[in-house]
# Entry
Amino acid sequence: MAVEILIAESAIRDRVVELGRRIESDYAGKPLTIVAVLTGSLIVLADLVRRIGIPHRIALLQASSYRGATTTSTMLVVNESFAPDVSGRDVLLLDDILDTGQTLAALVQHVADRGARSVRTAVLLRKIGRQTTPIEPDYCGFTIPDAFVVGYGLDYNDDYRHLPYVGILKD
Ligand code: 5GP
Ligand code: MG
# Structure
C-alpha cells in the first residue's frame, strides 16, 4: 500500500526537541517517570528522552482494547506483567496518538490508582474530530486530520512502524 508523507522526518525532529525542552523545564527537580504505551510510542520515546536533560526513569505499559460483541463500549485491559512502580513518582504517560481518547483516559486512572504523585499526558499526534472521551493532552506534537496514519512507531497490522516520517496509508 502507498504511504503519503504527512509529517516529514525533519519536522518531527524539531518538534520533539521543543517538547523535550518544555518537559525538561516543567519537571526540573521532580521524580519524573515517563511511562510509554507499547508499541506505538517506542520510536518517539527513544527520540524524546534523549532531548530531556534532567534525570528521569523510563517504564512501559501494554494495554489492549476490546470491543464487546453485544455492546458498543470498549474495555481496556492493561497487561499486568508490565507493572512499573510509580508510587510517589511524577508520571508522564506517553502515547503515539490520541484518537477517541479512551485509551489515554483509562491509563491516567490506572497510573493514578497505583500511587503516582501526579499524572500528565504526552502524545505525538492528536486526531481532530474523533474524540469521545474528554482529555486534554499536556504535551502534543501535532494535530492531524481524521485519516489513518502510519510510521514513526504507528502500525498497520504491525507493519510500517519503522518509517522515519508519519504518513497517510492509501488503500
Ligand atoms: P483511542 O483510545 O484514543 O481511540 O486510541 C488510541 C490508539 O488507537 C492509539 O494508541 C493507536 O494504537 C490506535 N490508533 C488510533 N488512530 C490510529 C491511526 O491513525 N493509526 C494507527 N496506526 N493507530 C491508530
Ligand atoms: Mg496504541
In short: The mean pLDDT is 94. The first helix runs from residue 9 to 26. The two ends are 6 Å apart (CA to CA). The pocket of guanosine-5'-monophosphate (ligand 1) is lined by residues 40, 95-103, 148-150, 154-156 (CB under 6 Å).
